[in-house]
TrEMBL record:
UniProt region (Disordered), positions on chain: 451-559
Basic and acidic residues bias locations: 498-511
Source organism (scientific name): Trypanosoma cruzi Dm28c
Protein name per the record: J domain-containing protein
Membrane spanning stretches: 88-111, 123-149, 169-191, 197-218, 238-260, 272-289, 309-330, 350-370
Low complexity composition-biased segments: 541-553
Taxonomic lineage of the native organism: Eukaryota, Discoba, Euglenozoa, Kinetoplastea, Metakinetoplastina
Feature: compositional bias, Acidic residues: 513-534
Length: 559
């Protein structure tokens, strides 16, 4: 209707707006944007990690390794409670204590088995008791914090994400009871006659089954796939389902190894110790495979190189290989006696592995503390420089419609168009007549537009497009370009602005070599100049998602 002058959005505006797109857009771009919008796991996980100062600092220092630490069942809840510095210190102290306790235990075990000392078995196992008690306290604290500290939705977790913390505590309880029972039986001299070791070894079987079954929460194929889906990549099915199958294989290996050891100690079977330790070989092989899969997963998202995959795989191979060699040295010691192999010498690979872990832990904690201090200082400086944009009273923070700009409110400006990435905006003609096409800005033959405009007005070009002006056009608002003198204006007839096509390379080709600056000096353009906005898919786009990285900028030459 001729009397209907109210501006409106195009009829096909809503669905594009829901995806944050602006026309023109291709179906390929729509598919890419929809894939990005639907990956809510990525967005929510990124928000939960980066919105918290402590978690963000830890992620900036460790990268993807910090994600597993933050969402782990044991240390994740403590990190939320204690903060990054306290959590790092607590983790460092408990881990160093655990490694030292294991190192002392294996040293005491080696000298006691070969009768170099006459200590009681309770004294020999004292470091082991300290280890299991500390682990029991930590896992109990983590389980309590995980269950009662905050609701699941505040941590971005599901109820199943609480399972690992509780199951870790149950597993540590089983191992603690097992250690006390075995040390008590060995100290009383009931190793050969009790016949109860098969029953004792049911406790580590229960612990391993509970632990690995609870790990299926983060090993779930869909969760692994979501962690690897970045852009349009297609994660490997081997990686998506590999971790899940390993979580099922590990309990089976644990059942076999502990059952064989218990029955061999009770002399229910007469197999050699070399055969009894075969399940440990399979466990070591699967550990190496899992290390390769973890590195391959990081390579999929682009944070690991092929050389990094090789280094991680070889490192896991040598580390697990050392422990396996030490285990078979122990088998030789049990079979042939201390005359052939002494127990302290058989445990040398274990000592080397524990010392390596201790050195790595010291280096890691020093690096983390320094990096955390730098991140906190940078965070404070950035917060001092940053001024948040406040919404005016008339705006509620929702998507802005065309009529909001047509009302002529104080807050309706081109800056609002730039900031409002979620709405599809239509540029207006004179007198608020909205246009649904781009011919208003590109046509040079529309006589009506030429008659309506005046030379002293700013050219009504799309936001973000620097269209070259005709020589007859006056400077746009805010420009420092010198204007013509009165005599020159008297000679040349005053006419309306002529908006040339910014894509016309024939007219603007000569401007690529040099331009005249304000002071009359010639400014050379770099031949290798690349448009910073080459990811913008359309000239009219004010939303970064509308390009979808598929089309290059067409106005690079015009610039």
């Amino acid at each position: 209707m001729c009397c209907d002058s109210e501006a409106k959005n195009p009829d096909n505006w809503r669905l594009y707006h829901l995806l944050g797109l602006e026309q023109p857009v291709t179906a390929k771009q729509v598919q890419w944007t929809f894939r990005k919008v639907t990956l809510r796991h990525h967005f929510y996980q990124a928000y939960l990690v980066l919105s918290d100062t402590d978690r963000k600092s830890l992620y900036d220092a460790l990268g993807e390794d910090a994600v597993g630490f933050i969402h782990s069942g044991s240390w994740g809840p403590l990190l939320h409670l204690l903060g990054s510095k306290a959590a790092i210190g607590f983790y460092f102290g408990s881990t160093v204590l655990a490694f030292l306790a294991l190192l002392l235990f294996f040293i005491f075990l080696g000298v006691r088995v070969d009768d170099h000392v006459a200590w009681s078995w309770t004294a020999v196992a004292a470091p082991l008791f300290v280890l299991v008690i500390v682990a029991l306290l930590i896992t109990a604290f983590a389980a309590i914090v995980s269950l009662f500290w905050r609701p699941t939705w505040e941590e971005g977790m599901h109820y199943v994400d609480r399972i690992p913390a509780v199951c870790n505590f149950i597993a540590v309880v089983c191992y603690t009871i097992f250690c006390f029972l075995v040390v008590s039986a060995v100290g009383n001299g009931h190793v050969d006659s009790s016949g109860k070791f098969a029953a004792y070894f049911s406790l580590p079987i229960i612990a391993d089954v509970v632990y690995y079954l609870s790990s299926l929460v983060w090993r779930w194929p869909r969760r692994i796939r979501l962690q690897m889906e970045i852009g349009l990549n297609n994660p490997s099915c081997f990686l998506c389902y590999g971790f899940f199958f390993l979580g099922i294989i590990y309990p089976c290996i644990s059942i076999a190894q502990w059952l064989l050891i218990g029955r061999r100690i009770d002399r229910n079977i007469e197999s050699s110790w070399y055969v009894v330790f075969i399940p440990f070989c399979f466990r070591a092989a699967f550990r190496v495979l899992e290390a390769y899969m973890r590195s391959k997963m990081k390579w999929t998202i682009g944070v690991k190189t092929v050389m990094g995959i090789t280094f991680d795989t070889l490192g896991a191979f040598f580390f697990n290989g050392m422990l396996l060699v030490s285990l078979y040295f122990v088998a030789v010691r049990i079979t042939r006696g201390k005359e052939e192999v002494q127990m302290p010498l058989a445990l040398i690979p274990v000592y080397a592995a524990l010392l390596y872990l201790l050195c790595a832990m010291f280096f890691t904690v020093v690096y983390l503390w320094g990096k955390n201090a730098d991140n906190e200082r940078e965070e404070r400086l950035n917060n001092l420089k940053w001024i948040p944009t406040e919404l005016s009273k008339d705006r509620q923070g929702g998507p802005m419609l065309v009529r909001d700009f047509h009302r002529g409110a104080d807050d309706a400006s081109w800056n609002d168009i730039e900031e409002d990435n979620g709405s599809s905006l239509v540029f207006h003609g004179r007198d608020g007549e909205g246009t649904e096409q781009y011919d208003y800005f590109e046509s040079v033959t529309d006589e009506d537009l030429l008659d309506e405009h005046h030379g002293d007005e700013a050219p009504n070009t799309p936001y973000g497009v620097s269209a070259p002006l005709d020589e007859d056009v006056g400077p746009h608002f805010g420009s420092h370009t010198p204007t013509a003198t009165d005599s020159e204006m008297a000679i040349r007839p005053r006419g309306g602005p002529v908006h040339h096509d910014p894509l016309n390379l024939e007219r603007h080709g000569a401007e690529l070599d040099s331009t005249e600056s304000d002071n009359g000096e010639e400014e050379e353009y770099d031949e290798e100049y690349t448009d910073d906005d080459d990811r913008i898919g359309t000239l009219m786009s004010s939303s970064p998602t509308s390009s979808a990285f598929f089309t290059s900028s067409n106005h690079s030459a015009g610039r």
